[in-house]
Design brief:
This protein has 657 residues and is α+β, with helices and mostly antiparallel strands. It folds into two domains: 25-33 and 51-322, Haem-degrading domain (Beta-Lactamase); 336-441 and 571-657, Beta-Lactamase (2-Layer Sandwich), CATH 3.30.450.150. It contains 13 helices and 18 strands. The protein has helices at 3-18, 58-74, 129-142, 152-158, 248-257, 295-298, 371-387, 425-440, 445-450, 458-467, 481-487, 519-536, 591-609; strands at residues 80-85, 90-96, 102-105, 126-128, 214-219, 222-230, 234-235, 272-273, 276-277, 303-305, 329-331, 343-345, 403-407, 413-418, 571-576, 579-587, 625-628, 631-634. It has a five-stranded antiparallel sheet with strand order 5-6-1-2-10. It has a four-stranded antiparallel sheet with strand order 14-13-16-15. It has a three-stranded mixed sheet with strand order 4-3-7. The protein is globular. The N and C termini lie far apart (57 Å).
Length: 657
């Protein structure tokens, strides 16, 4: 982008920063489709089968792009198309001739949906179309696995203030993954960058997308990446899942997937959450025109490959096979993690990125976590995971797959372990959850927030007024992510349309948007603005730091929430006696399953190692009662599935612990 274009864009970015604070299902056929495989049985002594180590070739990436461009041409859509592999490496960005260089993040009008309104959070922010296309593609890749195929339309359904979102569902609880869109952030210290090589998981320029047009790609039943299409000038979300949209971006993306479609049995609309079928795509294969499969026919005449600063040099390349050392995610060695099913993050050259270690926070706590304690918690949590029945995987009665992260009170990673086919989004999110539980349970939480840039300090007083507790956020209560999530909803209590908003949400429920959740968004907007300036200026402006938020550093120079906070369930703080010593987070399956693995994993790890445990009952956030117009409403701490295990009929497994 030319310098004068960047200069005009900078004004809009600055305005966004200053203004903060406040169906049908797709057919999987066409183009030969992807055969639905028979689930591979795990090897002897294993609970999980390893995903096939397959990847997109350069020729296949060319085919995918050509098919998407051909459908876009047929529909008169001048689009930017991005293809990524499973770990987020950008394989191609193709910009059609005449495609808009930028798109605008949707505004939500006060009192209405989707129309122009006041500027709140990221709403109204102009962003590069290539960034939007990459974000859509990463969303399709990261939310999907061999047991579930999710799209950016699925993401839209599960992140809004009511689930499912529709004009007639006002008053239902918020989406199960409310807030997940603010993960995989460009400032995340976990997500890799181009200069780190071809390892993943890579960062996304805009976090996860809720705008239809991002669909996963499969080979032999394994997710190998995704495609994202942006071209209509509006980076938005679907506020009504009761109707079917004819979305040109989604049709172009669906054309791109032909020959690489997700197996029909695992597409999102075959998966239910709380009795509601998820959405995959409103576009269907029978609505596609003749496929254009020749890259040579569109490369030049219809546009060309483009570079995107921080993501791709403009070359087209093949993908990296997930599970290989080169992908950055591989099976652990016996020395790294004793359980044979465990996967870890790697630096691409043989070394684990997050080996198990002892706590680093000796200046803040009397007795930090030991490496043996960290290992005990992670192993016990992983064992619970292997026994648990999955919520979002097919076939039914599959085992849960997810990522488990553990941190100390400074937010330093002490260990991360994954199951083989856990969705990639859960890697960054599990770390967000662990850090969030440790942060809000920490005696310095209020002090840190009060030292942040405006409008962040305002949230401290809002919480104290809301809870009628002038010492709130000083460590007197233990907050799980479910507890903080209660306080982060635009309607309190969640599931009602009442007169008050949660104190960590926007101050007026009608100002809520998937692009402005409250504190979660305000914490990272400065980083996001810096990063977009870097992309738009072709690297002239500096990139954002590795480590989100402008909050003060912890001793030693780390950020306590260095990849942002998360506001849906799946974490608990860790205590030694009455002192906070860390946090554990789990993500990748149903939120109750995530809660259970963190809570029981810590409990069992504490029983095994001795000396560490969940918070004492009398300081858990579910002891906090909020007065809502004369009615008492209790916060939540954790919620475990009623009968969760595949190998044991036991019920109420978290009761009394």
């Amino acid at each position: 982008m030319q310098r004068n274009a960047w200069t005009s864009m900078a004004g809009a970015l600055a305005l966004a920063l200053s203004g903060c604070g406040g169906g049908g299902s797709s057919g999987g056929g066409g183009g030969g489709g992807t055969p639905t495989p028979t689930p591979t049985p795990p090897p002897s002594g294993r609970f999980f089968a390893d995903p096939p180590q397959v990847a997109l070739t350069q020729g296949e990436v060319q085919q995918i792009v050509a098919q998407a461009v051909g459908e876009a041409q047929a529909r008169g859509l001048k689009a930017t198309i991005a293809v990524v592999d499973r770990v987020g490496n950008v394989l191609a960005v193709f910009q059609m001739t005449g495609a808009p260089a930028n798109t605008t993040i949707s505004r939500r009008q006060i009192g209405g949906l989707g129309a122009a309104g006041d500027l709140v959070g990221l709403q109204g922010l102009p962003v590069p179309s290539a960034a939007a296309a990459i974000a859509k593609a990463i969303t399709g890749a990261y939310l999907s696995s061999g047991g579930n195929a999710f799209s950016s339309r699925t993401a839209s359904q599960i992140v809004q203030e009511h689930f499912p979102p529709a004009p007639s569902t006002v008053g239902l609880e918020s989406g199960p993954l409310f807030g997940v869109q603010f993960s995989q952030l460009p400032c995340s210290d976990l997500s890799a960058r181009v200069q780190d090589g071809f390892i993943g998981p890579k960062r996304s320029p805009l976090g996860l997308a809720a705008d239809p047009g991002g669909l996963p790609l499969y080979k032999n039943g394994a997710v190998v990446g995704a495609i994202g299409v942006e071209g209509d000038g509006d980076y938005g979300f679907d506020p009504n899942t009761l109707d079917n949209d004819s979305d040109a971006e989604e049709f172009a993306a669906l054309a791109g997937t032909q020959g690489f479609t997700a197996p029909r049995s695992i597409q999102a609309d075959r998966i239910t959450v709380d009795g509601t079928s998820l959405r995959f795509s409103d576009a269907t294969a029978d609505g596609l025109g003749p496929l254009q499969t020749s890259f040579g026919a569109i490369n030049g005449p219809a546009g060309g490959l483009v570079a995107v600063t921080g993501y791709t040099d403009g070359m087209l390349r093949g993908g990296t096979a997930y599970g290989t050392e080169a992908s950055g995610v591989r099976q652990s060695t016996a020395a790294e993690f004793a359980l044979r099913d465990a996967y870890v993050l790697s630096n691409g050259a043989g070394a684990g990125r997050y080996p198990i270690r002892a706590g680093t926070d000796g200046v803040s706590v009397a007795q930090p976590l030991t490496a043996a304690e960290v290992r005990a918690i992670l192993e016990e949590a992983f064992t619970v995971l292997t026994r648990a029945r999955a919520q979002i995987r097919q076939p039914l009665d599959s085992r849960m797959q997810a990522t488990v992260s553990l941190v100390d009170t400074h937010g330093v990673v002490l260990g991360i372990v994954r199951s083989p086919d856990g969705p990639l989004f859960g890697t960054d999110v599990s770390l967000q959850k662990a850090r969030t539980a440790a942060f809000f349970s920490n005696p310095i939480a209020a002090q840190q927030l009060l030292a942040g840039p405006a409008p962040i300090p305002n949230y401290v007083q809002r919480v104290r007024t809301f809870l009628e507790d002038p010492s709130a956020l000083t460590g007197s209560f233990a907050f799980a992510d479910r507890s903080g999530g209660n306080l982060s909803r635009p309607y309190f209590p969640d599931g009602e349309v009442g007169p008050i908003a949660g104190p960590l949400s926007v101050d007026d429920p009608q100002r809520f948007s998937p692009f402005m959740t409250g504190l979660q968004t305000d914490l990272i907007i400065p980083n996001l603005v810096e990063h977009l300036g870097f992309v738009l200026s072709n690297g002239v402006e500096p990139d954002t730091q590795r480590g989100c938020t402008k909050l003060p550093d912890a001793p030693g120079g780390t950020k306590r929430v260095a990849n942002g906070i998360q506001i849906f369930p799946g974490s608990v703080p860790i205590y030694r006696g009455g002192q906070l010593v860390g946090g554990i987070g789990v993500s990748g399956d149903g939120i109750d399953q995530d809660d259970m693995v963190s809570f029981l994993g810590l409990h069992n790890g504490g029983q095994r190692a001795g000396g560490i445990a969940n918070a004492a009952v009398d300081i858990r956030a579910d002891q906090i009662v909020v007065n809502v117009n004369g009615r008492s409403v209790r916060l939540r701490y954790v919620s475990c599935p009623f009968a969760p295990f595949l190998d044991d009929p036991k019920q109420n497994v978290c009761e009394g612990l």
